[in-house]
Design goal:
One of its GO terms (biological process) is glycerol catabolic process. With 510 residues, the chain is of the alpha+beta class. It is built from 16 helices and 23 strands.
């Protein structure tokens, strides 16, 4: 390492792509972001254009480096982090996607998941993968793509049928990390965290599972090689004749929530973080033990460094939190997310109003794909301030649902919760979260912990950072929120469960 070298991170999210460059102290020295288009072909369907995502990735990398006056040759490594579960297939030779990517939020395969449950397969799937069968994960999306994607017209003699081409190894399957890593390096690779979110991977054997591949009819020939999250052997290097103009190791990758866990330096058993983005994702490091959940949580791979055991985590996936604030803007109740803090403070309470933001069903610990958004308790006196405050309270209540399930499953009492994501800039929400949970909420100075985590993984792999202790020293507190929990607050939380009950099983096909 020399003083003028850095580590870069591609952070490919649900709404856009960011490239950040970090120095040895973990400080941001370059940053660029671009949004990409969201496609909604039918109600409940969500898609992205992988080609657009790759184009935006190249654009933000160039923009960030140019704006900071950094040469690509000054990058010692690049890490990748990504929206998880979003699924695509592409032609192995041409690199052309066979269909738009199906996004993690997409619900088109709900019927297939219900079929699995009806056939008694849910328990086996959960035992192997740690996941509750849900349309959220990649397996049913991959199955749908192979059944429904139109064959690509090729200029060469190859089987035209999509499944035949998949069996022949002519197609590559991947989540967004695999797509970007192959574009960057030419190698078809994923890391252990992203593999663990596909519902095709046995997290105990740490291998693709033949029984699951057969169930979802996903050919093994399409699958990427699974590697550690921080890989001293590298996934590959960028092409010096490519868009970057330099040969840079791509050596780290984590799904976005595991990247945030890593960026928050939650390296030890009992460490916990919650990321407040489009949804919220609460992860608790359980060490080398894959703790099975009896309370609707996911058991997932937290991270793995080269030559070291896998670290597992319990995860509570809350589908809609920040997206509920966006919805407030969509319906004209706010002009900007920044307004919500003052509006919520302007009233003493929600005046009995509860909002359950089950716009795409409910995740942990409820797992109801047919739940839908609900507002209850309104009267003639209800004003937008009450609905805004109820929206912020729903974020805190959903997080407590998950926290209580985690303590029951793991026997680990969370004493401090490290938070990140766009919503934690809202001090009202952070204090509310502390009050509702009854634990300290700690917000770090660098809140882009997802990008930071993938940079840390890549930098450790190439020796830019030597030890995890170096990374712990980089982590600095911005603000800490101490709980002021009251019996009134606990009663309000209990009433929240009544509101949730009214949202369940709403989207029935009678």
């Amino acid at each position: 390492m020399t003083p003028d070298t850095y580590v870069g991170a591609v952070d490919q999210g649900t709404t856009g792509t960011r490239f950040m460059v970090f120095d040895h102290e973990g400080r941001v020295v370059a940053n660029a972001y671009e949004r990409h288009e969201q496609f909604y072909p039918e109600p409940g369907w969500v898609e992205h254009d992988p080609v657009e995502i790759w184009e935006k990735t190249q654009s933000v990398v160039r923009e960030a480096l140019d704006s900071a006056g950094i040469e690509a040759t000054q990058l010692e490594a690049i890490g990748v982090t990504n929206q998880r579960e979003t699924t695509l297939f592409w032609d192995a030779e041409s690199g052309q996607p066979i269909h738009r990517a199906i996004v993690w939020q997409d619900r088109r395969t709900t019927d297939r998941v219900e079929e699995l449950e009806a056939n008694g397969k849910a328990e086996t799937i959960q035992a192997k993968t740690g996941l509750q069968p849900d349309a959220y994960f990649s397996a049913t999306k991959a199955e749908w793509l192979l059944d429904n994607a139109d064959p690509i017209k090729l200029q060469r003699a190859r089987p035209a049928d999509t499944r035949e081409r998949a069996e022949a190894g002519d197609l590559h399957f991947g989540t967004i990390d695999s797509w970007l890593i192959e574009k960057l390096t030419g190698n078809h690779v994923t890391d252990v965290t992203n593999a663990s979110r596909t519902m095709l991977f046995d997290i105990h054997e740490m291998a693709w599972d033949d029984e699951l591949l057969e169930e979802f009819r996903v050919p093994r020939a399409t699958l990427p090689e699974v590697r550690p999250s921080s890989d001293e052997d590298y996934y590959g290097t960028t092409d010096p004749d490519g868009f970057l103009g330099a040969e840079v190791p791509v050596a780290g990758a984590l799904g976005d929530q595991q990247a945030a866990l890593f960026g928050q330096t939650c390296f030890d058993e009992g460490d916990a973080k919650n990321t407040y983005g489009t949804g919220s994702f609460f992860l608790l490091n359980t060490g080398e033990e894959a703790v099975e959940s009896d309370n609707g949580l996911l058991t997932t791979v937290g991270f793995q460094r080269s030559g070291e055991p896998v670290q597992y985590a319990l995860e509570g996936s809350i589908f809609v939190t920040g997206a509920a604030v966006e919805w407030l803007g969509d319906v004209g109740l706010i002009d900007d997310a920044g307004e919500t803090e003052d509006l919520a403070r302007s009233v003493d309470s929600t005046d009995g109003v509860y909002l359950v933001p089950a716009f795409t069903g409910l995740g942990a610990p409820h797992w109801d794909q047919r739940a839908r958004g609900t507002i209850v308790g309104m009267t003639r006196g209800t004003r937008r301030e009450h609905i805004v405050r109820a929206t912020l309270e729903s974020i805190a209540y959903q997080t407590r649902d998950v926290a209580e399930a985690m303590e029951h499953d793991s026997g680990i009492e969370v004493e401090e919760l490290r938070v990140d994501g766009g919503a934690v800039k809202n001090n009202f929400l952070c204090q509310l979260q502390a009050d509702v949970l009854g634990v300290d909420i700690v917000r770090p100075e660098v809140d882009e912990t997802t990008a930071l985590g993938s940079a840390y993984a890549a930098g450790l792999a190439v020796g830019y950072w030597g030890t995890a202790d170096e990374l712990r020293k980089n982590w600095q507190v911005d603000s800490e929120f101490t709980p002021k929990r009251t019996s009134e607050g606990d009663a309000m939380y209990e009433r929240w469960h009544d509101a949730v009950d009214r949202s369940l099983d709403w989207a029935r096909e009678d």
